[in-house]
Amino acid sequence: MNIAENPTTESLEQFAREIRAGLCQAGQKTLPSKYLYDPLGSTLFEAISLLPEYGLTRAEERILRQYSREIVRRVPKPAMVPELGSGSGRKTRWLLTALCERESLSYYPIEISRSALSSCKSELRDIEHVSIVGVEREYLDGLREVASLRPHGTHLLVLFLGSTIGNFDSGADARFLGEVRGFLLPGDSLLLGTDLMKPVDQMLKAYDDPLGVTAAFNLNLLARINQELDADFNLRHFRHSSTFNEVTGSVEMHIRSTREQTVSFRREGFSVTFRKDETIWTESCHKYSRESIGELAALSGFRTEAQWIDDQWPFAETLLFAS
Ligand code: TRP
Asked: Quick one: which atom of ligand 1 is closest to the CA of 285?
């Protein structure tokens, strides 16, 4: 079952608007990273999570595999479980399995990527006593919808895994969690995954692997735009690049134009010129410290209940309660 799929034309118009705004603004060109996850992008991200250089996903899965029962013991019953960005669902399996040992429950993956939603649902279909209700919405719209379905006395356990919080600009992360907090009641909780600061060359390798999978993932956004907006990006004239920004503590992902060139968007009737070496910024991935996670939580109206850290790849899973 799914809640409220957006009509395709509306999402195509929104896609076109956001792409145009990002490429036509003065200064740094940008593209929204949420659009990286079309069917090919989602598959490439799955491949990234298997790369030896990209330890995040495996670290989080180790934590959830090992500590799900302990996490669940700290969460009051009965619970309903919305997840912001379901991904493949593989990591969530450990939590849902631990939760349904004590009660049947509903799980609400919230995703704008239809392909991610359907692979998550088929990945988790076999877990007994869990009914899966896909919510094809942006995170906060989806959470508002799920919160409105809450039966009296039920507690929300919101999952926000994979360090997606690190993809918000500095300051926007606390604002976003503050908005999440706004949908919660005392007794509700948030399980938050965050990647931790580590040596710069290790972080850079995680976002620029020698096989070129990450490059393909980033450049696929241009291929998607070509297909959906009838544009003519020549992918051979753009390169993936990642850098570490010491000031913000984030790895930044860009797509660099290797020459001066003009790209036409025939469906929309506009064009964009690029200087040689001009970049499109697609995503930043902020790396946290244990202290900065606590500060972020406090700023957004949460108290830290417990935290688990992987011993092979610095990554933290933190259980927060609405304070
Ligand atoms: N947001 C994820 C992360 O911070 C996804 C990601 C991995 C990513 N590699 C990327 C996003 C390359 C853009 C470009 O790890």
From this structure: 4
Give CA 149 to chain center in angstroms: 24
Q: Is any ligand 1 atom within 6 A of the Cβ of residue 218?
A: yes
Task: Give yes or no for residue 163 CB within 6 A of ligand 1.
Answer: yes
- Do 164 and 84 contact (CB within 8 A), yes or no? yes
Residues 133 and 152 sit within 8 Å (Cβ to Cβ): no
Per-residue pLDDT of the chain (323 residues; tens, 9 = 90+): 566 555 456 689 999 999 999 999 999 999 999 999 999 999 999 999 999 999 999 999 999 999 999 999 999 999 999 999 987 788 999 999 999 999 999 999 999 888 889 889 999 999 999 999 999 999 999 999 999 999 999 999 999 999 999 999 889 999 999 999 999 999 999 999 999 999 999 999 999 999 999 999 999 999 999 999 999 999 999 999 999 999 999 999 999 999 999 999 999 999 999 999 999 999 999 999 999 999 999 999 999 999 999 999 999 999 999 99
Cα–Cα distance between 273 and 18 in angstroms, integer? 17
Ligand 1 centroid vs 290 CA: distance in angstroms?
21
The protein residue whose alpha carbon is closest to atom 9 in ligand 1 is 207
- pTM for the full predicted model: 0.92
Residue 296 Cα distances to 30, 80, 88, 257, angstroms: 25, 24, 27, 36
Binding site membership of 285 for ligand 1 (Cβ less than 6 Å) = yes
